[in-house]
Design a protein that fits this description.
368 residues, Rossmann fold, 16 helices, 38% helix, globular, binds iron/sulfur cluster
Length: 368
C-alpha cells in the first residue's frame, strides 16, 4: 500500500480497493483505452494495489503512438520543404520516422515550430502570406474540434497558405477491432472520459450490446480509475454488460453538441491505418471534399513514400495489449526515451514511456 497515503482521499481509495477485493471471485482482464489513464495507473501504482486476479491491459489510446509511420514520414517530407512552416504539438517532434524525426529536420534547417493550438498555426499563416503553413492535426475525438475550428476559420479568412496534415482516429471502432481481433483477452473497457466529454456516450451501447462487453466511462485521477474498475468488475461478476458513466462531473450522454456540429461540418469518416495495428474500417476522420484545399496530403505530393518499421520494436503488440512494455526485449536497452525505437516510448501518453519513467523494469508478478 505504498502509494495509498498520497491519494487525495486515501480512506476512499482504501474502501474502493476493499470493495473490489471483496467482489472479485475470478480472473478478469480490463482494458483502459486511454494512454493518459495508463500513465495515471502506472504512476500511482494502481495495478500493484489491485487483487492479482485483475489484470489491466493498456489500450491503443495514445494518438501519437497510433499515428502511422507513413504519415510521420509524410510530415517529415513536408517539413523539410524550403517554403514551409511546419507546426505541431511538442510531443510529435521526437517521434521516430523511418530515418529521422522532426527535431532532426529542424536541426537541418527546416522551419519546425511547436504550437499550443491549431489556431496559433492559423495566425502564423496570416502573418506569413508568402509561406505555406502546415499544422500536424493528429489525435482522437478530443483534439479534433479545435482542429476542425482551425480549418473552418482558415476557410472563412480566405487563407490560401494554410493546410493540415490530418490523422484523426476514433475510439468506438477501435474497441470493436479489439473485440474481434484473434486471441483477444479483453473482457471489459474503461472508456476515456475526455473523449466522451466531447462525443457523449450515445455511440457506446450498441458496442457493449454487440460484443457483450461492459464499458465504463472513466476519468483520470486515481480515485476515478478505482471507481471505474470497481463498477466494471461489478458488471463482470454479475454477468452484465452495459454502458455506465463513472465520470459524471465531465460527461453527459449527448456530449458537446456544438463541438460535434463543427466536427460533422469539417470532417467525414474514413478508414484509417493505426500504427502497429493496421487498417480499421471507418476508424478515423478526414477533411470533407469542401475543405480539400486545406488538406496538406492533397496540397503536397507526398505519396509513394516507403516506410520501414524497426524490427526491434514491438509497439504493435503493446498497443493491442498482447505484450507489456517491459516484456519487449528492447525496453530500457536499445530503446529508451532518449533514444526511442517506437512512438510508445516517446509520447507523454505512451505505455512504454510510462513503464520507463515510473521504473517498471520488471514484470508485475515479481513486485507483488
Ligand atoms: S520498448 Fe521501445 S522498442 Fe519496445 S515496444 Fe516500446 S517503443 Fe517499441
Amino acid at each position: 500500500m505504498k502509494y495509498l497515503d498520497e491519494f487525495r482521499d486515501s480512506e476512499l481509495a482504501r474502501s474502493l480497493l476493499a470493495e473490489i477485493r471483496e467482489m472479485t471471485t475470478r480472473p478478469w482482464a480490463l482494458m483502459e483505452v486511454c494512454g493518459g489513464q495508463t500513465h495515471s495507473i502506472i504512476r500511482n501504482g494502481l495495478d500493484q494495489l489491485l487483487p492479482e486476479k485483475i489484470e489491466l491491459i493498456h489500450g491503443p489510446g495514445c494518438p501519437v503512438c497510433v499515428t502511422p509511420l507513413a504519415l510521420i514520414d509524410q510530415a517529415l517530407a513536408i517539413a523539410s520543404r524550403e517554403n514551409v512552416i511546419f507546426c505541431s504539438f511538442g510531443d510529435m517532434l521526437r517521434v521516430p520516422g523511418s530515418e529521422k524525426d522532426l527535431f532532426r529536420v529542424k536541426s537541418e534547417g527546416g522551419d519546425v515550430r511547436v504550437v499550443y493550438s491549431p489556431l496559433d498555426a492559423v495566425q502564423l499563416a496570416r502573418q506569413n502570406p508568402g509561406r505555406e503553413v502546415v499544422f500536424f492535426g493528429i489525435g482522437f475525438e478530443t483534439t479534433a474540434p479545435a482542429n476542425a475550428m482551425a480549418v473552418k476559420l482558415a476557410k472563412q479568412l480566405g487563407l490560401k497558405n494554410f493546410s493540415m496534415l490530418v490523422s484523426h482516429v476514433l475510439v468506438p471502432p477501435a474497441i470493436a477491432a479489439i473485440m474481434t481481433s484473434p486471441g483477444n483477452r479483453v473482457q471489459a473497457f474503461l472508456a476515456a472520459g475526455h473523449v466522451c466529454s466531447v462525443m457523449g456516450y450515445w455511440q457506446y451501447p450498441p458496442v457493449a450490446e454487440r460484443y457483450r462487453v461492459p464499458i465504463v466511462i472513466t476519468g483520470f485521477e486515481p480515485l476515478d480509475l478505482l471507481d471505474g474498475i470497481r463498477r466494471t468488475v461489478a458488471q463482470l461478476e454479475a454477468g452484465k454488460h452495459f454502458v455506465e458513466n463513472a465520470y459524471e462531473r465531465a460527461v453527459t450522454e449527448v456530449g458537446n453538441v456544438a463541438a460535434q456540429r463543427v466536427l460533422a461540418e469539417v470532417f467525414e469518416e474514413t478508414d484509417r491505418a493505426w500504427r502497429g495495428i493496421g487498417v480499421i474500417p471507418l476508424s478515423g476522420w478526414r477533411l470533407r471534399p469542401e475543405y480539400r484545399a486545406f488538406d496538406a496530403a492533397h496540397r503536397f505530393d507526398v505519396s509513394g513514400i516507403r516506410t520501414e518499421e524497426s524490427r526491434d520494436c514491438h509497439a504493435g503488440e503493446v498497443l493491442q495489449g498482447r505484450m507489456k512494455p517491459n516484456e519487449c526485449p528492447s525496453f530500457g536497452t536499445k530503446c529508451t526515451p532518449r533514444k526511442p525505437l517506437g512512438a510508445t516510448m516517446v509520447s507523454s501518453e505512451g505505455a512504454c514511456a510510462a513503464y520507463y519513467n515510473y521504473g517498471r523494469f520488471v514484470a508485475l508478478a515479481a513486485t507483488r
